[in-house]
Amino acid sequence: MCGIVGYIGKKEAYPILMGGLSRLEYRGYDSAGVALGGRKDIRLYKRQGKVADLASFAEGKDISGTIGIGHTRWATHGEPSDRNSHPHLSQCGTVAVVHNGIIENYRELREDLGRHGYRFVSDTDTEAVAHLIEHICERTGTTFPEAVRLALREVVGAYAIVAISTGDPDTVVVARKGSPLVVGIGDGEFFIASDATAVAEHTRRVVYLEEGEMAVLRRNEEFYVSSINGHDERYPIVMEIEAELEAIGKNGFAHFMEKEIFEQPETILDSMRGRLDPETGEVRLNGIADHIDRLAEAERIIFVACGTSFYAAILGEYLIERYAGIPVEVDYASEFRYRRPLIRKKDFVFAVSQSGETADTLAAIRLAKEAGATVLGICNVVGSSIARETAAGIYTHAGPEIGVASTKAFTAQVTVLSLITLALAKRRKMLSDEELIRLGKELFAIPEKVKRALTKQNECREIAVEISRSSDAFYLGRGVCYPVALEGALKLKEISYVHAEAYPAGEMKHGPIALIEDGTPVIAVAPDGEIRDKIVGSIQEMKARKARVIAIVTEGDMATAALADRFVEVPVADEFVVALLAVIPLQLIAYYTAVTLGHDVDRPRNLAKSVTVE
Ligand code: AGP
């Protein structure tokens, strides 16, 4: 998720662009850049690092001009570096583009443009769009706005694009498909941004582009909105920004964590984008393409991770062993690095890490590399240390996770692990083509089902009020819902400071049940599946000790719901993917408990977003 800004009007563009980038820096912060338009040339200043680093770099340079675009980057394709920073220039320097999103067919676009003599200076997907717009202008002689429209018709994926050109120096073209874009309306001037944070200080009048729409902005002129695929024009609907700047950065949510919980339908889709064909069940994991065949023959896969990522890895273990038939071990990275594990050259070691900077996980992969194992990564931050130190890997594309307590990164990790499972199951012929297609469709249907799971806010709020009055809580799960219970308990601990423990439901009778007293809250993760009947027995054991049972059940399973004191329903889903749904109410319960207790949800005590020290 990157930050985009643009300006066209009568003021100097540079200070407006830089102010907007500073406001958007929370969205993406591995590099920043601006392009200042004009009749002769486009002046481009961009650097890896913070907006402040860009300002230092641009000091003393020609930053004049009343039209420009800017960008803070959250890398998805191409490591953070000066050359991968946005804006990107076309080959002849006639077009500059900034982009937020993921272009799925960028490889094909690069190959086609390469055949037309275009040379690429970056590893990004975005650069292809700049060249393509220039190529269409030259090939067809059409106008700059039409060239942008035609170029975007060749693009597959998600984007918010802002483009300027020397050929039409008094025009900014904006387009949106899958990533938000807002146009602020001033007095004969326009302020463009990926969200209203960067616009609100200049104007409260904004137009939000709708999906598949574009607009052509010129000084002192009204603008129309049109669809990229057609030519139907409409008058823009002007809205008034109501919220305060701080709230706008959270898109109106009270905390980044809440925003990130509710972003999950989009981020889960982004983690699948371009990787799963639901019609054929085909999974394409370019990041590990050179290793997937050997991985399918592995005698053992070892996951190393910490915290939430460790629980995602346990889920990966359950899925890969059950559906792909490869032995898997999961180790706390902090233990793995010191317990002198037996690592063989033929082992595959996977590091799972949102930040890609966790010291224990980094140490664990270095140990595995020394032992000669093949080390792969599943990270959310492109170009992070773990991403760079592993032989290959898969990015989760969840966008920056600002809340210290991980939510969207967890579901993105589980989604990627599910894709890996399908890819391995296919290669090992563990599943029929029909089964692969069925499970692929189940996974593809998850974003919409997560949206439905997110509607249970009121039930979760009421449960949270109860839990906020408790000093302890227990989470029970079986099978794939055991790591879900672990993750739910961690979420509660981290942000509400209520003590919580998770157990495999069958384990309670081996000791922990001694802790159950009258009214002790017990959250039982009990969606439909092979193990639901077994966990029902555990619920009855808890009820016999007067626990207050909260059950996470499949929609319509009133038999299980009736055994509990409270319940939250999640949509029907196959056991292969149900964990992605069952975790949603647990995230909400933890969040609302922390809010009820008045804690700093985004910055909980004692915690850091990335534990880069031992
Ligand atoms: C999860 O909510 C916590 N922030 C923490 O447990 C985190 O998952 C752990 O520190 C691992 O971080 P990583 O995924 O960035 O490696």
Which strand order spans the largest sheet, edge to edge or round the barrel?
Answer: 3-2-4-1-10-9-11-15
Cα(first) to Cα(last) distance is 29 Å
Determine Rg (CA atoms, Å).
25 Å
Highest CATH level, the class of the largest domain = Alpha Beta
Main β-sheet: number of strands, strand sense, barrel status? 8 strands, antiparallel
Q: Work out the count of structural domains.
A: 3
Total strands: the figure is 27
Contiguous low-pLDDT stretches (5 residues minimum) are none
- Based on Cα principal axes, name the global outline: globular
Question: Which molecules are bound in this entry?
Answer: 2-deoxy-2-amino glucitol-6-phosphate
CATH topology of the largest domain: Glutamine Phosphoribosylpyrophosphate, subunit 1, domain 1
Helicity level: 25-40%
Question: Can you give me a brief rundown of this structure?
Answer:
The protein has 614 residues and is α/β, with parallel strands linked by helices. Residues 306-309, 353-355, 358, 361, 404-406, 494, 610-611 line the site of 2-deoxy-2-amino glucitol-6-phosphate.
